[in-house]
Design a protein that fits this description.
By secondary structure, the protein is an alpha/beta fold. The chain is built from six helices and 15 strands. The two termini are 47 Å apart. The N terminus is likely disordered.
Length: 367
Amino acid sequence: MVQLCRVCFRKYGNFVDNLRLYVRGGAGGMGLPRLGGHGGNGGDVWVVATKSMTLKGIKDKYPQNRFVAEVGANSSVRSLKGERGKNIEILVPVGVTVTTDDDRILGELNAEGDRVRVARGGHGGSFSSTFLPSKGQSRQVRLDLKLIADMGLVGFPNAGKSSLLTVLSNATPQIASYPFTTLKPQIGKLLYEDHKQISVADLPGLIEGAHMNKGMGHKFLKHVERTKQLLFVVDVCGFQLASQTPFRSAFEAVQLLTKELELYKEELVSKPALLVVNKMDLPDADHKLQQLQKQILNPEDFCHTLPENMTPKSHMAFRHVVPVSAATGLGVDRLKEFIRESLEEEASEATEALRQQRLQLLRHHSQ
């Protein structure tokens, strides 16, 4: 049995996951016509990934959101070749995608030290430019953060994700008995006795139509992209978002969640996933769980209850279906074990796939 000694949870209060910056490269320095002197080039603006920075940190430290590199030095009698202006580096968190205002991707910073140039410095004045310098490149860029975590919690409001986090950890998320959705992501670390760490992201709850930017929309779905595995959480008794929306059974909730992921980005459905069936302390929960397990094994036979446009093209293949009660703690330790087991299985499969790939390359080269 895997023993969990403690779980840490970090809550983002004023979480910022996107930021718009003005960046400008330094202008070049003036050339010196009478001696043919060359002005120094202006500095560039770079965005560099580091684990010690958050987008909120940038926002607080640089409220103007404006970054301008140093200008190149003018050519002079003492120094015919003007000195280059200093580059400026904007430190950003790992997981940031840098885009222009027209959504062109300039770079993705997925590891510590990754860097991308966002504005070039201008050229120093020289003979070819009649010794006049050029201005540095200037533009607006967007920093878009996608959280990187081992597991991402996926569920509709009121499925009990926040309650589940409370029993998995020392987090104190806002919990309500009405359909309430987490508005700020949280990243938690499960720390095991052998010092193994697993990060879990609790992400804003989905509502039907999230892929079309309803509710938290893309703000939620983009964070799912960078989690290694998904942890679906459904209420065993089903749910109804509001009096004017239809009641959805647990099985329908799973299919609708799958559909939302599929519509946003089809490859998300192929991610390894676990299904957590919550609220097992409610009356008739065991009977409903049996029904759900039967439906999950043969989803095609039961999808007729949903309109065609809400039925996913492909179904999630869950590695485990884990019944729990966040209210009583039932099944929570087992869930912790399955989370670790599933991630270790995936890592082992990835290692084996890489080994086979290398073997094939070796065989290919030896022929």
